[in-house]
Design a protein that fits this description.
Bound molecules: pyridoxal-5'-phosphate
CATH superfamily of the largest domain: Type I PLP-dependent aspartate aminotransferase-like (Major domain)
CATH class of the largest domain: Alpha Beta
Strand order of the largest sheet: 1-9-8-5-4-2-3
Number of domains: 2
Number of strands: 15
Shape: globular
Largest sheet: 7 strands, mixed
Length: 396
């Protein structure tokens, strides 16, 4: 069986999936003149926070801007150090670097590919302000170990949960496992809000208020009598109590729009069933690919619910093909587009220019020669999943 190119584009391009529910919700917001950050955003924030189990949700324009607000809320600035994983999308590190902090990379655990708490422990100094683990591919990090390192030292733990909407660790949801969590709703994620979007979750009133303030230019409104309004009312610019404006600090506009939030509310209702389907596909992949020489399947920790934003295999040295040849043959002979998430951040030109270098994180550097992401998203048909596994068996 050979999939035509058009089918490959449809099946593998990205995970977004919208139905009649999103269409109706979007039209309703259009009829209300599609405001910026209005009542739908508030509803979405409350629904997402309730889903995760946190006191607060704060909808933002992307995972990147959410992470930046989280860094600001944690008080990160020049001279501080932020410890994170080298194996992530570059945003994770950039948000700290952009604030003038030093990004310190702690190597990964070779089984889970998540940040290794033992390596984090070695990197902690008096300047460490934040530990920023990433729940890579949808599998939560070893959060107990990381919190044990952070809490006694007053270090803030920011979860990068961009891949992990609906993921769990010891029965608790991603986004509730540190001091503040950040999700992405970019078009490839497990749930999406019209191409871009993100959400912050936290139980801390003070972290929430700081993020809320910087999301909206640190704007405060005061009435004609000079009385400043409470921050929640102040920061909904479309709200009724819009009077005069003052600005407490140098902030940003990272507000989500109501039309995105309306779609997000519908997506949230579908998230669990989509994650269930991702897990089913991952299980089929693993069952059908088991036993291929030199192909290591994803390790799933017994403590987590892995939601398989990415299904990643390791092409080990015993394999017939190198990683590059495996990817190339999948693409050119079988029309399957694999990916490699990600180039280790410290090896990118941007971070080499900041003084980072080869040898800094040997585990990820070695595994970079091996990790390959196979296509996965809830719309994949049985036929396509079978096609992918048969193709790999033929090539490997
Ligand atoms: C691990 C990780 N963190 C952060 C981000 C940034 O999210 P966004 O693309 O919504 O800015 C991404 C995006 O892919 C990501 O994969």
């Amino acid at each position: 069986m050979k999939l035509p190119k058009a089918l490959y584009e449809l099946e593998f391009s990205h995970g977004s999936s919208y139905g009649e529910e999103e269409k109706a919700a979007i039209l309703e917001v259009l009829d209300a003149n599609a405001p910026s950050c209005g009542s739908k955003v508030k509803q979405f924030e409350e629904a997402f926070a309730e889903y995760c189990g946190t006191s607060y949700g704060l909808a933002v324009t992307s995972g990147t801007t959410g992470l930046q607000l989280a860094m600001i809320a944690a008080g990160v600035g020049p001279g501080d150090e932020v410890i994170t994983t080298p194996l992530s999308w570059i945003s994770t590190a950039n948000v700290a670097a952009a604030l003038g902090a030093k990004v310190v990379f702690a190597d990964i655990d070779p089984c889970t590919l998540n940040i290794d708490p033992a390596r984090v422990a070695e990197k902690i100094t008096d300047r460490t302000k934040v530990i920023l683990p990433v729940h890579l591919y949808g599998q939560c990090c070893d959060m107990d170990a990381l919190n044990e390192l952070a809490q006694p030292r007053g270090i803030v733990v920011v979860e990068d949960a961009a891949h992990a909407a609906g993921a769990e660790y010891k029965g608790r949801k991603a986004g509730t496992l540190g001091d503040i969590g950040v999700f992405s709703f970019h078009q490839q994620k497990n749930m999406v809000t019209l191409g871009e979007g993100g959400m912050i979750t936290t139980n801390s009133r003070s972290l929430y208020e700081r993020a809320l303030s910087y999301r909206s230019l640190c704007c405060r409104t005061y009435d004609p009598k000079g009385k400043y309004l409470p921050i929640d009312e102040s920061l909904h610019p479309m709200g009724k109590k819009y009077w005069y404006l003052d600005f407490d600090n140098i902030g940003f506009n990272y507000r989500m729009t109501d039309i995105q939030a309306a779609a997000g509310l519908e997506q949230l209702k579908k998230l669990d069933s989509w994650n269930k389907r991702r897990i089913e596909i991952a299980n089929i992949y693993s069952n059908r690919l088991r036993g291929i020489k030199g192909l290591r399947l994803p390790f799933v920790s017994p403590h987590v619910k892995h939601v398989f934003h990415v299904y990643c295999v390791l092409v080990e040295p015993e394999s017939r093909l190198s990683k590059e040849d495996f990817m190339w043959e999948l693409y050119t002979k079988k029309f399957i587009k694999p990916w490699s998430h990600y180039m280790p951040i410290h090896l990118t030109t941007a971070y080499r220019n900041l003084g980072h270098k080869h040898g800094e994180c040997p585990v990820v550097e070695k595994l970079f020669q091996q990790y390959v992401s196979l296509p996965i998203h809830p719309r994949m048909s049985e036929e396509t999943v079978e096609y992918v596994t048969n193709s790999i068996r033929e090539l490997a």
